[in-house]
Write a structure and sequence with these properties.
Helices cover about 45% and strands about 20% of the residues. The protein is an alpha/beta fold. It has 2 domains: about 120 residues, Response regulator (Rossmann fold, 3-Layer(aba) Sandwich), CATH 3.40.50; about 160 residues, CBS-domain, CATH 3.10.580. The protein has a 5-stranded parallel sheet, with helices on both faces. A 4-stranded mixed sheet has the order 7-15-14-13. A 4-stranded mixed sheet has the order 8-10-11-12. β13, α11 and β14 form a beta-alpha-beta unit. α2 packs parallel to α3. The longest helix is centred in the last third of the chain and has 17 residues. About 0% of the residues have low confidence.
Length: about 300
């Protein structure tokens, strides 16, 4: 994404919950977002301030998306517009494409896909050459991840994770990929580890079961009847809640420079057998690039090739 100035996005949708949730998520991704609830408001906003990309719902009361699109193009013909609909109206989609829509996405849409479409639309609007993106262009900013400090308890960490679930579940019309790991920070807010669901499940295991994992030769000498598991999950979960996050966390992901080519990121993910890399810029962590981020970039390239 543009390093010096965030991409200015206007979201136009009559669903208040969609506007609020999508705006919040995109802002966390570094976009400058304004949201309005009607085509009339969108026209007024475009007249008032410069914008880079418009995300426009097709079906709205009053002035619908296609009518609003025509008015937008009269005001600023080069402004890139991404059309959204939850109604599967191909006729409306084709009408929109004839009017010069950059792309057309059906609701519910994944936020990763929407973010990449906005970036691509911005590149077209600014006439930026279509060279391969760098890691900083496809990463998820650090602000999008849940974070806790190493001296927090597991109970506190779980509360943070649950809040992130609640944010994602506040709407049925936008999907955000739930990050499977929470980032762990030290007292200087430096990323020193991650806490994953697997880490939490491993923390539930009583000492003798961890011994079986670490020393397989003991496994044959220890036999647990199914009945002996009764109540164990509850007991261990309550005990786990009191522990410090540092006792359970895994190491921080391997790092990669923000300016690195995405092929280098793909190679590191494969060679190191990891699912994410910590993105660094001037010795500071600024984001995380995950395997799904590279998947969406790959899918976008293949889709563009098919459509040519």
């Amino acid at each position: 994404m543009n390093e010096t100035k965030p991409i200015r996005v206007l979201i136009v949708d009559d669903e208040e919950r969609f506007r609020a949730t999508t705006s919040a998520i995109l802002k966390k991704r570094g976009f400058d977002v304004t949201a309005v609830g009607s085509g009339i408001e969108a026209i007024d906003e475009i007249k008032k301030r410069p914008l880079d990309v418009v995300v426009l719902d097709v079906k709205m009361p009053g002035m619908d998306g296609n009518e609003a699109l025509r008015e937008i193009k009269k005001i600023k013909s080069g402004l890139q517009v991404i059309m959204l609909t939850g109604h599967g109206t191909m006729k409306s989609a084709l009408e929109g494409l004839r009017e010069g829509v950059f792309d057309y996405l059906a609701k519910p849409c994944d936020i990763d896909v929407l973010a990449r479409k906005i970036q691509s639309a911005y590149a077209k609007e600014k006439g930026i050459s279509a060279e391969e993106p760098r890691v900083r262009d496809v990463m998820v900013p650090l602000s999008s991840f849940s974070t806790v400090h190493e001296d927090s308890t597991v109970r506190e960490a779980i509360e943070v994770i649950l809040r992130s679930f609640q944010t994602i579940m506040t709407t049925t019309t936008v999907h955000e990929s739930l990050h499977r790991s929470t980032l762990i920070l030290d007292k200087k807010d430096k990323v020193i580890g991650v806490l994953s669901f697997t880490d939490l499940l491993e923390g539930l295991q009583p000492p003798y079961m961890r011994l079986m994992k670490d020393r397989p030769m003991f496994a044959d000498s220890i036999h647990i009847e199914p009945l002996n598991y009764s109540g164990m999950f509850t007991i261990m979960a309550r005990d786990l809640a009191k522990k410090k996050v540092r006792e359970l966390m895994s190491e921080a992901p391997p790092t990669i420079d923000a300016g690195a080519n995405i092929m280098e990121a793909a190679s590191r993910l494969v060679s190191l057998r990891v699912r994410r890399l910590l993105v660094m810029e001037r010795d500071k962590a600024i984001g995380v690039v995950r395997e799904q981020d590279l998947f969406f970039e790959m899918a976008n390239i293949i889709k563009e090739r098919i459509e040519q």
